[in-house]
Design brief:
Elements lengths: L2 E6 H7 L11 H4 L1 H13 L12 H7 L8 E4 L5 H15 L3 E3 H18 L1 E7 L5 E7 L1 H25 L2 E6 L6 H6 L4 H24 L2 H4 L14 E3 L1 H9 L6 H23 L1
Parallel strand pairs: 1-6, 1-7, 2-3, 2-6
Antiparallel strand pairs: 4-5
Helix pairs in contact: 3-6, 6-7, 7-9, 11-12
Length: 276
């Protein structure tokens, strides 16, 4: 991951208003379905009856998830699922950038988890107060916990590797009426929290490398403050994306986007100086 941004959902809705599809138009290019299918097959080989069973997360990534080549990782809340897909289609339509939309991954994982839950199900005959028998379905608590642990560990591993591998990370902030910091505090999704934490960790590691590469004299003048969750994300808005869309023959859209952000900020700073 080289760049990280966030954008208000209200700005994004204006950008993608012409995008009607609620499915990723280039999904087959990401091989996501094959990755999930292979993940399912791998875990199916792990018998719930075998206490020594192991799932090799590294081999799963190397064999299957490494084939998913995306340019942008889009993180969003469940309410913005359609918007995220429309944004992914807009990025591909305008710049041929392929996006990994996180919900397309973890929604499939939720379905996968339910399938494994079914494997732990058993039916037991019980009797009501009048002695009439009936069948009642139960789930083996220990086996279900085991399968859940396997799936969650693999999801965490896969999301971490994917964020690290994908050049650009974009988080869609749902509520434009509150600050970015407030939106982070109100997060209820453990997956989004994990994604933002990984972005911050990657950014912190980059800062440490920059500090280590400095000379001893430089180090005495450097003070590195590591970011709180999400603080390393640059804000982008409707104008930034529309300006980017109007540019011709862009080879590196997000390098150009950074330039547009800086130019817009310079104009704002100059106006502020005049006003005060």
């Amino acid at each position: 991951m080289n760049k990280a941004y966030y954008i208000d959902s209200t700005d994004l809705e204006l950008i993608v208003e012409s995008e009607k599809d609620d499915k990723i138009t280039y999904a087959e290019k990401l091989s996501l379905e094959n990755a999930i299918k292979n993940l399912k097959n791998q875990i199916n080989k792990t018998s719930l009856e075998d206490g020594n069973a192991r799932v090799d997360a590294e081999s799963i990534w190397d064999d299957w998830f490494s084939s998913i080549n995306a340019d942008v990782f889009i993180s969003h809340s469940s309410k913005d699922g359609k918007l995220a897909i429309q944004f992914a289609n807009w990025l591909y339509k305008n710049f041929k950038l392929k996006s990994f939309v996180d919900s397309q991954f973890w929604l499939r994982i939720d379905n996968l988890q339910r399938e494994f839950d079914e494997k732990t199900k058993f039916v037991k005959t019980e009797y009501d107060p009048y002695g009439i028998s009936y069948k009642k379905t139960y789930y083996d608590y220990n086996k279900r916990n085991e399968s859940t642990a396997h799936v969650h560990a693999l999801v965490t591993y896969a999301l971490t590797k994917m964020i690290n591998k994908t050049p650009v990370f974009i988080f869609i902030k749902s509520n434009s009426s509150i600050s970015f910091e407030e939106s982070i505090e109100k997060l209820t999704s453990p997956w989004i929290f994990h994604e933002l934490a990984i972005v911050d960790l990657i950014n912190s590691q980059k800062l440490k490398k920059l500090e280590e590469q400095s000379t001893e004299n430089d180090k005495s003048n450097i003070s590195v403050t590591y970011p709180m969750l999400g603080n390393c994300l640059k804000q982008i808005n409707y104008k930034n994306l529309k300006d980017l869309q109007s540019e011709k023959n862009i080879k590196n859209p997000f390098a150009e986007l950074d330039s547009l952000i800086e130019n817009n900020q310079s104009v704002i700073n100059e106006l502020y100086k005049i006003l005060i």
